[in-house]
Each structure stands twice: as C-alpha cells, then as structure tokens.
Design a protein that fits this description.
heterodimer; A: about 180 residues; mainly alpha; Rna Polymerase Sigma Factor, Chain: A; Arc Repressor Mutant, subunit A; B: about 80 residues; 3 helices; transcription regulation (chain A); sigma factor (chain A)
Chain lengths: ~180, ~80
C-alpha cells in the first residue's frame, strides 16, 4: 500500500474517529487529543497495518487502547465517579423533552465502559456485531447483550430514572460539570 | 389549573420528560443522536495539528520515490528522522 493511499484512508477515517472519541470520552477536547495521538501511532506503526483490511477498524482499535491506557492514569488523578455523571443527568430532559447532543454525550458517560463502547461501535460507527466482537476481543453474543443493556439503560436514564435527584442544587452542579467537561 | 388524572395513569410534573414521549422511537432516538454526532464531526474542519502530523507521510513517500536505498523497516521510526 502506498503512503498516499494510506494517508487518504486515514483522512477519510478522521470524522469517524472524532465521532467515536467524542462519544467514548464525552469531551470534545479530549477526543481530539485522542485522535491526534491515534494518528501519531498509526503513522509510527503503519508497517503493522495489513493492506486490504479495515483501516477504520484498525485505527479505532488504536484509539480505544489509547483511551483506556490514559483512563487508567487519569482515574488515579481525577476521581470522576459515576455519581458525578449521574448528577449531570439531572438537568437532562428539562428542555421540552428535547435532547441536546451534549446531554446525550453526558448520558453515554453513565453507561459502564464495556456497554458504552459496544453501543458506539454498533450504533454509531456502523460496524457489524462480528467486527465489533473482533475489535473488543469478545464473542458476538457478548457484544449483542452489551448493546442491548446499553440501550435499555439509556432509555431508562432518559425517562427520568428515580435514581437521580432533581433538586436545583444538583442541576446547577451538573450544568457546571457539563460545561467544564465539554469545554464550553 | 385543575387537571383530571385518571387513576393508574402516571402523572409527571411539568418540564420532566414523559417516558412515553421520549421512548416513542426507542431504537431510533439513540441512532439519531449518534448520527448528529457523526454529522457534526464530518462538518468540523480537520484541525491543522492533525494535518501537520499526516504530512509526515508525504515526506516518507517523497523520500521513497527519490531514493531507493536501504529501507527503514523499523516498526517505530524515530521522531527526529521523520523530517
């Protein structure tokens, strides 16, 4: 594979990579950092890419590894508990039931990581269950059940799960958190 | 204002999303949200940082075209040697 077509393939994959990273991390700035690092790794390791195989899948696998490697470091630095994400959700369906994209990104962060990434690969990145299973190094049935649990959990969250407080203090706190997370 | 609420019908406070409304197109709303995220990413210009990084590949192909001497087949080439 020539360097030109490798580059073209990468450029074509960038919107998918950014969308994937935004959905996975819930944060646009961090997402672009992840994409940047992914591009650097893809270039450095281009000999390992097998021409003819799915370049987008190869790059998303790199991005995902990068995300989890960083995530493990970050968790020790900034404890961002599920409780914080849940708090962001209290502000969610307030605006005429209209769901804003930032709210959705925030809701995704309430899902367990394995469910979130399965849902994104299937629902957003357009991979088949078989492809996703290969990328996640698991079985097709596992991917299916993760996606299905993710969908029910999102439905549940969006319909105002009683788990979440709706007092004004937590709504205010969640707005701040959301704005900080999204770098608005 | 007095509102009649049938027994057994869930009643939701104003401003709180009603499940029947949100869950109308269960499968679809999630897909729609993802489509919006993708469309937005598609419309966003690719940051210069990313294109700069990719221009490394132009240099690699240019040097491969001009000189056919020994091939650097290291898996991870030095960053310094890329320019």
């Amino acid at each position: 594979m020539s360097e030109e077509s490798f580059k073209e393939g990468i450029v074509a994959a960038i919107p998918s990579l950014r969308a994937f990273a935004r959905s996975l991390s819930g944060n646009r700035d961090r997402a672009d950092d992840l994409v940047q690092e992914t591009l650097a790794k893809a270039i450095a390791n281009r000999e390992r890419y097998t021409p003819g195989t799915n370049l987008k899948a190869w790059m998303i696998t790199i991005l995902r590894n990068q995300y989890y490697t960083e995530g493990r470091k970050r968790k020790r630095e900034v404890p961002d508990s599920d409780g914080d994400h849940a708090a962001t959700l209290t502000a969610l369906p307030q605006q005429n039931g209209h769901l804003e994209m930032n709210d959705f990104l925030s809701a995704l962060q309430c899902l367990p990581e394995d469910q979130r990434e399965a849902l994104i690969l299937i629902g957003a990145s357009g991979f088949s269950y078989e492809e996703a299973a290969e990328m996640l190094e698991t079985r097709v049935g596992t991917v299916k059940s993760r996606v299905s649990r993710a969908r029910s959990r999102l439905d549940e969250l969006m319909s105002g799960s009683p788990d979440f407080k709706r007092d004004s203090a937590s709504i205010e706190a969640s707005r701040e958190l959301l704005q900080r997370a999204l770098g608005v | 204002m007095v509102q009649k609420v049938k027994a057994g019908t869930p009643h939701f406070a104003e401003g709180v999303a009603v499940p029947s409304q949100v869950g109308k197109s269960k499968e679809d709303w999630i897909g729609n949200q993802f489509r919006r995220i993708y469309d937005e990413a598609l419309e966003d210009d690719i940051p210069n940082d990313m294109m700069d990084l990719l221009s490394q590949l132009d240099n690699i192909s240019a040097s491969q075209d001009s000189s056919d001497d020994q091939t650097d087949s290291d898996d991870e080439p030095d960053k310094e040697s890329s320019n």
